Batch of 2 targets.
Target 1
Amino acid sequence: CGVVGIFEHPEASNLAYLGLYALQHRGQEAAGVVSTDGQEFYNHRGMGRVADVFSAKDIKRLKGNRAIGHVRYSTTGDSVLRNTQPLVINYRHGALSLAHNGNLVNARELREELERAGSIFHTDMDTEVILHLAARVDGKDAGERLAAALSQAKGAYSIVALTETRLIGVRDPLGFRPLVLGRLVESGGYVLASETCALDLIGAEFVRDIEAGEMVIISEKGIESRRPFAPVGRRMCVFEYIYFARPDSNLDGINVYNARKRIGHELAKLYPKDADIVVPVPDSGVAAAMGYAEATGIPFELGLIRNHYVGRTFIQPAQSVRDFGVKVKLNAMPSVLKGKRVVLVDDSIVRGTTSAKIVNLVRDAGAREVHFLVSSPPTTGPCHYGINTPDRSHLIAAQHSEEQIRKLINADSLGYLTMDALYRAMGSRETGYCDACFSGDYPIFKEIGAEERQLR
Ligand code: 5GP
Ligand code: SF4
Ligand code: MG
């Protein structure tokens, strides 16, 4: 998911909406904005992409100088209107609205407890658990109540919250998901956003990353930073750099595009191939392929062209077309690929089904050899922290050896990034990353004494 918050701007809801536009890659299922003028709360949410959810009229109706927004990518809960964010509640302390990126690992237990105590839930989202908890705990302000609620929650959360008087941003103690602070120079206001690319679009100046375990409270008095949780050390999601974040964003001080290019350099060291061209699977493989080409001197070519305008569903022709589902998104160019030894670069192999089809497309276009390089280590485990990977039984690398995978996707050779190479590209391992879906080292489970396997 992607989140954004605007504090003090006459067009707050418009800026929130634009921020969501820049964060669209973080979720295309649903979008929403909640705004306030300090008294009333206004909200508009809908299914689909930002452009489809909001009209100019909708934005006009979202009054006030403060707003938060959310784009949804579902990890828990069905994809229905009821499960869209930001959520708004009225409780004994007034109104509280919340938008959440991440996933709580103990949401089910917390929800069962709350339901036994009489809570009535309106959605399937773990985000609602946080609101129910916040309504129950004590605290002298909304920040304290939210912190008290969150100290019962375990898992990943980068949250923006809105009350009548405050915009609050909080990142879980491990800091799985990004969250940045920006400044609206002209209005003197503040912006919170999942990624810096959202600041760029609305002309906000980057101030700093919200730190793992930090809560910032923005009010008319200015900005206050709190440390409500016991420090545990950062475990930022390394897959944000490999795949999820936008290349033009800087996450915790590292530019995503540059990180991906350095990963490409590492792939070149690991797998120097006798090949004629380097071809990315667009868009996710582009930067790593450029890095590989740069390091090896093998020409970079766009042998696969992506259609960016494909929606979630399309009407298939009655007469079956081989690999139609992939072909509608990607077309292979014989003029580039014919007779060539091709290094094909993509960010990850999850189920392996798409990768197999892509290799087929490239072969059908006349490629003589296809060497498949992956800019991440083998994906051997699910993510419990906000990225929607299938469970282990569907992960090809959890079920098969690399040689078996090579055969299944019909490549002449297959090379994955190694963990060491990944961290050479990231600069250091010591900064603290989560790499559980590659390493099996799941943060939190050890900490709460539970076993990861109980979850799936
Ligand atoms: P597979 O071969 O496993 O079927 O598909 C691999 C492709 O899925 C890669 O191109 C990769 O970019 C993409 N991918 C990896 N992770 C995700 C994800 O979390 N969501 C979506 N939609 N695609 C992903
Ligand atoms: Fe990121 Fe993988 Fe950790 Fe999930 S398990 S937070 S995708 S590194
Ligand atoms: Mg891809």
Target 2
Amino acid sequence: LELESALHKAIERDELVLHYQPKIDVRTARMVGAEALMRWRRGNQLVPPGEFIPLAEETGLIVPLSEWALREAARQAKVWQLNFGFSESIAVNLPNRLFERSDLVEHIHQFVSQWGVPHRAIQLEITETGLMKDLQSVIPSLHRLNEVGVEISIDDFGTGYSSLAYLTTLPISEVKIDRSFVRDLGITPQSSAVVTAIIALARSLGLQVIAEGVETLRQMEVLRRLDCSLMQGFLFSKPLPPDELERWLAQTV
Ligand code: G
Ligand code: G
Ligand code: MN
Ligand code: NA
């Protein structure tokens, strides 16, 4: 309960921060976008999302928290646009209950207008499991977001048993191969079979495909051989505070 009221105040007290992990195109070794990951600066501690997102979801605080993240990502995109000519998108993780809200598109419109960035400055990640669980209530948002130019990426892909038939009807632009398959690449034949299948599926649907959780050169090489050149992971960079992302930002122009 104490944590809950502290989290409640965290937004107004300006205790939340976004860290950013670059998405890399290994063909050029350049950043092609970044994923925003929330942290809570509590006293001199930096609390990772695993320790407060579940509570936020239970208590409903996830709604103002997510809106804060969207607004902050739009602001950051503008700052990087001005300082570095940044024109890629920042991916924000949203739980399905946000996609179920009919005012999601209006909120995003408000934030990007406020900061004067295009809608495509914001990309949204929804987990495959979340998507499939509430498919019917999430679909209207996906279409409306797609219409205004906000791209949707399916996070943790390969873990959620989604129906191929459904996927082809959804206005999504990217799938992120789940870290668990990437981890076992070059170790178990099953993992490379799954990754090969995901890449083939994504290609045939005209989707962009990115591998997350890339930690070793070996994994990177296997992925390249499978014709997947977009990657994210500790091999390239952990999630960084905004000022430390500058090394990558300076390369995007
Ligand atoms: O950064 P870290 O590895 O601790 O993130 C753990 C999990 O928290 C990840 O699954 C990530 O998607 C999720 N997460 C990080 N930031 C946010 C956020 O802003 N909103 C939501 N809903 N989840 C987030
Ligand atoms: O669920 P989601 O994909 O949003 O999770 C993002 C989380 O994954 C972040 O907390 C981030 O710190 C973590 N992460 C990013 N790169 C790597 C990596 O290479 N290895 C591992 N184990 N975790 C990573
Ligand atoms: Mn994610
Ligand atoms: Na993920």
